[in-house]
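Hey,

Quick one before I head out. I ran the complex with pyridoxal-5'-phosphate overnight. Inputs first:
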Amino acid sequence: MGPDGQSSDSMWEQVQQAPPDPIIGVTDGWRADPDPRKLNLGVGAYRTEEGKPYVLKAVREAEQQILADPAMNKEYLPISGNAEFNRLARTLALGPNSPAIREARVATVQALSGTGSLRVGAEFLSTHLPASFPRIVYLPNPTWGNHKSIFGKAGFQVREYRYFDAATRGLDFGGMTADLTAAPPGSVVLLHACAHNPTGVDPSREQWRQLLELTRRTRLVPFFDSAYQGFASGDLDADAAAVRLFAEAGLELVLAQSFAKNMGLYGERAGALSVVTKSREVATRVESQLKLVIRPMYSNPPMHGAAIAARVMGDPKLNAMWQEELRGMAKRIKAMRQVLYDQLRARNIPGDWSFVLKQIGMFSFTGLSRSQCEMLVKKWHIHLTLDGRISMAGLSAATAPYLAEAIADVVANA
Ligand SMILES: Cc1ncc(COP(=O)(O)O)c(C=O)c1O
């Protein structure tokens, strides 16, 4: 349609069909698949041994308490969200003895789960990094698919650093440190706090120490994405070790936290963005500017998920229940690694499959090629992202043998 409004064509005729999201699209494909053997190994959400979504008991209990609370209302939250949730969230990540928290040097706002926290953080950095800093972000290769768009939309030039070594299916630490050493000073470096998605490969404690020194030396701005705290090892403190190492060394850093996986609050969109600064005064000013990012984006965040998370973290009984359930979820995923490994070994599939046991967290990065993955989808009705990432959480003792049989077939015949 022309601006004169004369044509009968839609003014949207020129709009192109967008490709489906590579991760969300997997679940759409799985839903549409009529085969009864179908498996969804694309989904980044915990499933029970029966393949069902799981609502944590601590979460159900917290919801009941919220419902029964006569003080509960549906008023707007402040722009920065639920203050108690923010306090508990940053303490969860930085630790109860964090010097930065004690000195009130941390600005925290509630945001829309991990994605929204990353987006608000990227926007803040893009506007408020010193003028002399380049707007460049370094992402691991590979990384969670959304990182590129999030930082790209915020005006960053996106670059990659080497991360995954296809030969060893482990960390390419030499490549990583070489690429980050060569980064222009003032670049942002995105680091997965634990349980790297999609590879399940994390730096060791000693390697984190070296990365800390490198970050300091090269004057990079560390941005931690913490989407799996407690979900990786079952231990909330162990999974926060890298973030705490950097914060306690006195570095200024940015931290996006998600409660999607570790509290099973996927659709509730509970997350927090923290900026660790050098002083209380700077933190206060940073928080005021974070609010200016949020206000024209969505005004203020949703209340229910944060209210649940605040109760679960803040109530000693619910907190203990939560940690018990977290350990249980992490344990089931680890057990699936062993079951799958045994099943693969039993079929004498060529190659070293021990990476299945070594990788950490929800995913295993199999190294299967695109054509092998396509054959898994088409012939075996096993739905996964075509980069070869499988969700260990989507697997059960009953389905692991079927997956191993399918992998044996595609390795031999794709
Ligand atoms: C590495 C990483 N970051 C962030 C997210 C964001 O998740 P959400 O926005 O659901 O909290 C995910 C989810 O899969 C992730 O894997």
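Residues 44, 113-115, 144, 192, 197, 225, 227, 258, 260, 266, 271 surround pyridoxal-5'-phosphate (CB under 6 Å).

Talk tomorrow,
K.
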